[in-house]
């Protein structure tokens, strides 16, 4: 069974082509990394997959279901951690997760137990009844992961889940993702700018640049093509012609979004 099948997907914002005739396949149970420089089209692709943007041309299927025709069914199979912070600061951690459980129709009788379970997985049990506005950045990210997991998604979509976290917090997010993957046989589709982490975590990665797919394969095979000592960062540079250093994270859009969330969170 194919978890995700993207064929001929294009997405424009006005004249700007953000995703350009993209073909991509993610297998069931795989951890797949979508890599590429800022503005490559990763988030846009994930938003189409996630039914937030209807596909303008081409098609996307999630476990055989079309994102356009079967949007509701697709949404139920998905857990999504967006690039921009999405939690509600005026609610406690537990309330934030409960709200998602309700949204995703987790049966009423199971809700409390399910919420407690995912809070435990992300190690937020002790902080669960504090307002989320008092959480650190790493705790917020783990809370978002708990929200994405509460409906036991077949496909977990993570858009830069570890951005802004210290190395220990990053490891802890990834360890939890791997644990969930093993426990529930979840498929994981993620984006990250940390090449070392993608190398360790992902079964396969795709390199995206200017909305197009430049390369896809296992980290080992892509590195081997570049030479005996090549790193995934070398692969990234080769296919995108850009360096990871000195890049500004996000544009004004992102900054505005983050500020708005920060305000909302007090
Ligand atoms: N809502 C929007 N309106 C106009 N342009 C947009 C919008 N969203 C994205 N874009 C543009 O589409 C392109 C792809 O953006 P996208 O957010 O998909 O990139 P990305 O690969 O996720 O980048 P990053 O690594 O910075 O998150 C960029 O040029 C961006 O400016
Ligand atoms: Mg993005």
Automatic annotation (TrEMBL):
<dbReference type="GO" id="GO:0016887">
    <property type="term" value="F:ATP hydrolysis activity"/>
</dbReference>
<feature type="region of interest" description="Disordered">
    <location>
        <begin position="243"/>
        <end position="266"/>
    </location>
</feature>
<keyword id="KW-0067">ATP-binding</keyword>
<dbReference type="InterPro" id="IPR003593">
    <property type="entry name" value="AAA+_ATPase"/>
</dbReference>
<dbReference type="Pfam" id="PF00005">
    <property type="entry name" value="ABC_tran"/>
</dbReference>
<dbReference type="InterPro" id="IPR027417">
    <property type="entry name" value="P-loop_NTPase"/>
</dbReference>
<protein>
    <submittedName>
        <fullName>ABC-2 type transport system ATP-binding protein</fullName>
    </submittedName>
</protein>
<feature type="compositionally biased region" description="Basic and acidic residues">
    <location>
        <begin position="246"/>
        <end position="257"/>
    </location>
</feature>
<feature type="domain" description="ABC transporter">
    <location>
        <begin position="4"/>
        <end position="235"/>
    </location>
</feature>
<dbReference type="InterPro" id="IPR003439">
    <property type="entry name" value="ABC_transporter-like_ATP-bd"/>
</dbReference>
<keyword id="KW-0547">Nucleotide-binding</keyword>
<dbReference type="GO" id="GO:0005524">
    <property type="term" value="F:ATP binding"/>
</dbReference>
């Amino acid at each position: 069974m194919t978890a995700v099948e993207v064929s001929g997907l294009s997405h424009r914002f006005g004249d700007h082509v953000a995703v350009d005739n993209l073909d991509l396949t993610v297998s069931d149970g795989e951890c797949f990394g979508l890599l590429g420089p800022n503005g490559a089209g990763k988030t846009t692709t994930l938003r189409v997959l996630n039914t937030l943007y209807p596909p303008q041309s081409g098609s996307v299927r999630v476990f055989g279901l079309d994102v356009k025709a079967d949007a509701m069914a697709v949404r139920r199979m998905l857990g999504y951690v967006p690039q921009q912070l999405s939690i509600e600061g005026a609610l406690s951690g537990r309330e934030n997760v409960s709200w998602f459980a309700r949204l995703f129709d987790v049966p009423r009788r199971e809700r409390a137990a399910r919420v407690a379970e995912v809070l435990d997985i992300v190690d937020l049990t002790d902080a669960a009844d504090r307002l989320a506005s008092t959480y650190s950045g790493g705790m917020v990210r783990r809370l978002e992961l708990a929200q994405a997991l509460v409906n036991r998604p077949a496909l977990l979509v993570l858009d830069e889940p570890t951005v802004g976290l210290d190395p220990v917090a990053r490891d802890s997010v990834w360890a939890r993702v791997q644990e969930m993957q093993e426990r529930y046989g979840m498929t994981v589709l993620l984006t990250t700018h940390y090449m070392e982490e993608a190398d360790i975590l992902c079964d396969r990665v795709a390199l995206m640049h200017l909305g197009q797919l430049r390369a896809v394969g296992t980290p080992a095979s892509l590195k081997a093509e570049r030479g005996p000592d090549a790193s995934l960062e070398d692969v990234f540079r080769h296919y995108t012609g850009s360096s990871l250093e000195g890049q500004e994270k996000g544009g004004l859009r992102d900054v505005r979004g983050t500020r708005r969330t920060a305000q909302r969170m007090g």
